[in-house]
Amino acid sequence: MIEIRDLKKCYGERTVLDLPELTVGDGEALAFAGPNGSGKTTLLRLLAELLKSSGGTVKKPDKALYMPQQSYAFKGDLVRNITVTGCEKSEAKRLLEKLELSHLAEKKAASLSGGELQRLSLCRVLSVPCELLLLDEPTSACDAKGAALVIEAIKAYQKETGCTVLMSTHSPVLAAKAADRLIILNGGRIEADGEPKRILMNPENEWAEHFIAGWKI
Ligand SMILES: Nc1ncnc2c1ncn2[C@@H]1O[C@H](COP(=O)(O)OP(=O)(O)OP(=O)(O)O)[C@@H](O)[C@H]1O
Ligand SMILES: [Mg+2]
């Protein structure tokens, strides 16, 4: 269970995140959407303890993993880029297969395309079990096929570990297919919160309706 109360993040006078109350159940898959700068990364980084809040409390599971918005490569080939987490080579290879990167396994990770590197980043994070998986725009660099592979891998990992998943996204496909709850942020505040298809079909207020109308184009 994640319990957030009065969580705020401020930079000087500016409040970029303001969540009076948010509860996420164990095993839930929650997607955050919202315009650039609406606080999605801020919230994920607060939960990953990479950022200090300006106030409030967060109760969450101890074992959390975070995949950042910007993918990165370590030195060496793809297998090494996954086994840095301490997982077995066989597990790294299994994940590469799942994300359709096996044919590149011996290549240097630095030579990958943006979408390939993002799928490699996902392999790295999924190579270790956790209780709370935090994914910052996990399909942003992927084509439709790549996004489908990512969604499938996230779901399989969640089924295996029973973890809670929080992900940010600009993709209605990811929200509708991989999440059982969608929250829309605007200026660090929650505008809509509910079952993704319901929010997409029937937004809760005018602002959310306007945002989603732009999203569908
Ligand atoms: N170190 C900082 N100093 C000042 N402002 C910051 C700092 N870090 C983030 N911000 C501001 O906080 C706001 C929220 O940023 P955040 O990265 O959470 O947005 P986001 O919803 O993830 O956007 P995107 O869709 O572009 O990834 C932005 O307006 C950003 O400029
Ligand atoms: Mg972001």
Protein topology:
Elements: E1 2-11, E2 14-24, E3 29-33, H1 40-47, E4 55-59, E5 64-67, H2 78-83, H3 89-98, H4 114-126, E6 132-136, H5 144-161, E7 164-168, H6 172-178, E8 181-186, E9 189-194, H7 196-201, H8 206-215
Parallel strand pairs: 3-7, 3-8, 5-6, 6-7
Antiparallel strand pairs: 1-2, 1-4, 8-9
Helix pairs in contact: 4-5
The protein binds adenosine-5'-triphosphate and magnesium ion.
Briefly say what this structure is:
The chain is of the alpha/beta class. The protein has eight helices and nine strands. The site of magnesium ion has 5 residues, from helix 1.
Task: Characterize the structure shown.
It is built from 8 helices and 9 strands. A 6-stranded mixed β-sheet has the order 5-6-7-3-8-9, sandwiched between helices. It is an alpha/beta fold and 217 residues long. It has helices at 40-47, 78-83, 89-98, 114-126, 144-161, 172-178, 196-201, 206-215; strands at 2-11, 14-24, 29-33, 55-59, 64-67, 132-136, 164-168, 181-186, 189-194. Bound molecules: adenosine-5'-triphosphate and magnesium ion. Residues 11, 16, 34, 36-42, 69 line the site of adenosine-5'-triphosphate (ATP).
